[in-house]
């Protein structure tokens, strides 16, 4: 009795044979024109631009002319390969069945519609002023504080942490310890000992709400506390503070103009997309449940 060749027993061969059979049985949408791949100079230049994600006709026109015959052949073969595989994927509706492909197509269409809407978009001086008026708070300079603190580690001292902190505060006050001399006192803190010109919101991730707020309430040049943080207790000496202040448009006009232009582009892009969606009739099935107002 003859045995099968060893290569026919290889699982990889079985996988390839099964894949070939499945591919042959898949429904395909083909016509005569879909089997012709026309390749011209403009096609290859466009292909080069797409791969580089840069769209400068003159630059790539010159780049194409600078290619050697061998490089041009490689570009030609690559284009034909990509186009053939793309058409094969479309023929078996892979663009509809694969959610990743669908997502990529949606992203491309989104960008295309936005590009169409943004062609030649500019911003006027009046629009800049109106945008600044509506978003003035976004450009205000927040209050800042500069201070030094001494840390008492809650994990190290346990239940006695508050008492240790209170004794340290008394020592700092009685000795009128200068900020630079306090750097070696207390326990090791995982962040900074000195904070310079910090806003309250920027302090919270490291120091917690209570201590961050204290830096903007306590008197200047005095040791105060103890204030609690997620890590322990702190004695605080505030060196200086700067009050919040509004910025005049003239000081930041270029920045506001960029922001206003971007906001206008976003708005026009969304309008273009909504216009494209409005061309479709949407039939909502009765089993969707209640549809309320969007929450975003």
Automatic annotation (TrEMBL):
<dbReference type="GO" id="GO:0003755">
    <property type="term" value="F:peptidyl-prolyl cis-trans isomerase activity"/>
</dbReference>
<keyword id="KW-0413">Isomerase</keyword>
<dbReference type="InterPro" id="IPR000297">
    <property type="entry name" value="PPIase_PpiC"/>
</dbReference>
<keyword id="KW-0732">Signal</keyword>
<feature type="domain" description="PpiC">
    <location>
        <begin position="142"/>
        <end position="240"/>
    </location>
</feature>
<dbReference type="Pfam" id="PF13145">
    <property type="entry name" value="Rotamase_2"/>
</dbReference>
<keyword id="KW-0697">Rotamase</keyword>
<dbReference type="InterPro" id="IPR050245">
    <property type="entry name" value="PrsA_foldase"/>
</dbReference>
<comment type="similarity">
    <text>Belongs to the PpiC/parvulin rotamase family.</text>
</comment>
<protein>
    <recommendedName>
        <fullName>Parvulin-like PPIase</fullName>
        <ecNumber>5.2.1.8</ecNumber>
    </recommendedName>
</protein>
<dbReference type="InterPro" id="IPR046357">
    <property type="entry name" value="PPIase_dom_sf"/>
</dbReference>
């Amino acid at each position: 009795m003859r045995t099968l060749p060893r290569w026919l027993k290889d699982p990889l061969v079985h996988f390839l044979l099964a894949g070939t059979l499945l591919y042959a049985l898949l429904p395909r949408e083909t016509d005569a024109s879909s089997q012709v791949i026309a390749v011209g100079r403009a096609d290859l230049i466009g292909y080069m631009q797409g791969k580089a994600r840069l769209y400068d006709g003159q630059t790539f026109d010159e780049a194409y002319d600078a290619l050697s015959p061998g490089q041009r052949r490689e570009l030609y073969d690559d284009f034909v390969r990509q186009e053939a595989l793309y058409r094969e994927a479309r023929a078996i509706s892979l663009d509809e069945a694969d959610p990743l492909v669908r997502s990529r197509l949606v992203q491309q269409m989104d960008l295309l519609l936005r590009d169409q809407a943004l062609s030649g978009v500019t911003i006027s001086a009046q629009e800049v002023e109106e945008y600044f008026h509506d978003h003035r708070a976004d450009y205000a300079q927040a209050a800042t504080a500069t201070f030094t603190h001494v840390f008492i580690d809650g994990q190290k001292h346990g239940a006695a942490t508050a008492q240790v902190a209170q004794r340290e505060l008394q020592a700092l006050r009685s000795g009128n310890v200068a900020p630079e001399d306090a750097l070696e006192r207390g326990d090791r803190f995982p962040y900074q000992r000195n904070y310079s010109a910090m806003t309250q919101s920027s302090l919270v991730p490291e120091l917690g709400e209570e201590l961050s707020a204290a830096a903007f309430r306590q008197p200047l040049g005095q040791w105060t506390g103890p204030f609690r943080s997620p890590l322990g207790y702190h004695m605080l000496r505030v060196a200086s503070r700067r009050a919040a202040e509004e910025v005049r448009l003239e000081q930041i006009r270029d920045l506001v103009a960029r922001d206003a232009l971007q906001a206008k582009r976003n708005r026009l892009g969304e309008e273009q997309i909504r216009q494209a969606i409005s061309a479709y009739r949407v039939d909502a099935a009765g089993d969707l449940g209640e549809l309320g107002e969007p929450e975003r």
